[in-house]
Amino acid sequence: MTMLSGRMHWLTVGLALLVSAQGFTTVEVHGQAPMKPASAAAKRQSEARAASYTPAMGSPYGMPPGMGGVMPAGGMMGMMPDAPMSMAFPGPAPMDVMYASAMGGCDAGCDAMGGCNSCGGRGSGLFGGGCGIGGDCGACGGCGLGGGVLGLLMPYSEGGLGAQRWFDVYAGTIGLRRTSDFGGFSTGFQNLTTGQFQVSDLISQDSVNTATTLRSSDLSLDRIRYGLEIIANLQTGVGSNLEARYFGLNNWETSETISTVPSGNPTLFSVFSLFGTSPAGGFDDTDRSFIHTVSYNSELHNGEVNYRRRWVSPYDRVQGSWLAGIRYFDLDERFGFNATGSNNNTFTFNQLRFFNFDTHTRNQLTGFQVGGDLWVTMIPGIQVGVEGKAGIFGNHAEVEAQTFANSIPGAREFMQDGKTAYLTEFTASTIYRLTHSWSVKTSYNLLYVDNVALAPENVNTRDFSNAIGSGAFTPSRFPFLNVDGEVLYHGWSIGGEWLY
């Protein structure tokens, strides 16, 4: 009996050590702290129980031989986790392993694409859910691109793949280029058969060197100009909101000049006298000049209020919205022609002649538009999307011409009309989420407007001889308003979104 008890003693101690090692391993997998080692008193109590074992006592049902004997106080429920002989092992039950990915970590390591094979249930690898490049895989030890130094560059990803597209306020800058594809202006050259006036872009020419010219098409607005963009959202219901947007203050200015001052000869003639032919020798104010200058200025403003209704696809990484609302678009332009000469055609006594002619157009578009957007979450925290809007607008167009010159102390023409105009806008964007509240958004913007009055196309040089010397414009000048122009804007914008 003594020999048997000794063998059982060592068998029991071995099983206890094995059980303790299994429990420690399970705790580590489960992400818990290791168990405290059993106290010396507990060890002595366990050894005493093993030594007092007799076969007659048998083993409790469900326990292997050698593990019966004296039951701890309270029965099976009284076995404590820190008791080496306990059957209430910490961690998951045998053959039923709980992966840490269920709690946002990973225990199976990372796959070849930098993700975790067991994470999230929404895929793994490059676009894996909750892990890898875009995830928060704490147990991966900085695997792939989701941890280590590169992990500091990753976006805020706690929203997951299904984070709904929403922000309260956006503010940023928008840089646009304005194409300079405008037509010519109406000249005094008239077709006697059709009665139509010839359209041209040539406004000044050197009578000595006819290759020296000045054209309205020499003015280019194809330069990026920066303005302001602000968007504010107000939620009105589940998945719906009102959106107010403004962008504008983009201002384009350009000018071109030709001069014969170095030669000392006032040989510049303008389209107003049909380059010195009507009347012969031109006008004192507009011709026989030393300097001719043309200038162009354009500025825009946009305001809109839209009702937006959002939707989410069965695939949580895809979502979008449709919208409908009202829009106001304002386009102001100014085209100027300036001539500088001398009363005696020399600069001997600085007796200058001058001629300043400005054409100002304004387009006020108001109407209804519809559109929508589509967004895809590439990885948690990074979204790409496109948006389109289009509408039909009523254009309240105006044209105003003013002249100040030696022979004309001041004259003004004004016309206005209502026309139908069309506006289309397309935007492609990328959003990088920095924190819960802040994101960075960058976009490529394309804006097309048709049936507007552009200043160069409304310069009126017809029958100008009826005005020179009379002190005022006469009805025979045939004022007109041309709203057949079109303009295209394109460029980049960048700004920050704030979520309350």
Identify the notable features of this structure and list them briefly.
500 residues; mainly beta; single chain; 10-stranded antiparallel barrel; disordered N terminus; elongated; 43% strand; 2 helices
Descriptive account of the structure:
The chain is mainly beta and 500 residues long. The chain has three domains: 1-63, no CATH class; 107-154, no CATH class; 169-498, Lipocalin, CATH 2.40.128.100. Helices cover 8% and strands 43% of the residues. It contains two helices and 15 strands. The protein has helices at 2-30, 40-51, and strands spanning 169-178, 185-190, 197-200, 202-206, 213-215, 225-237, 240-259, 268-270, 291-312, 318-342, 352-379, 382-405, 411-433, 438-452, 485-498. The strands form three sheets. A ten-stranded antiparallel barrel has the order 1-6-7-9-10-11-12-13-14-15. It has a three-stranded antiparallel beta sheet with strand order 5-4-8, with no helix packed on it. Strand 12 (382-405) and strand 13 form a beta hairpin. The longest helix is centred in the N-terminal third of the chain and has 29 residues, at 2-30. It is elongated, with a radius of gyration of 42 Å.
Order of strands across the main sheet: 1-6-7-9-10-11-12-13-14-15
Overall spatial form: elongated
Oligomer: single chain
Taking all Cα atoms into account, the compactness measure Rg is 42 Å
SS summary, helix count: 2
Number of strand segments: 15
The CATH architecture of the largest domain comes to Beta Barrel
By CATH reckoning, the class of the largest domain would read: Mainly Beta
Given the helix and strand composition, which structural class is it? Answer: mainly beta
The mean pLDDT is: 77
Beta-strand content: 35-45%
Largest beta sheet, briefly? 10 strands, antiparallel, barrel
**Percent in helix:** under 10%
Element-by-element helix/strand order:
HHEEEEEEEEEEEEEEE
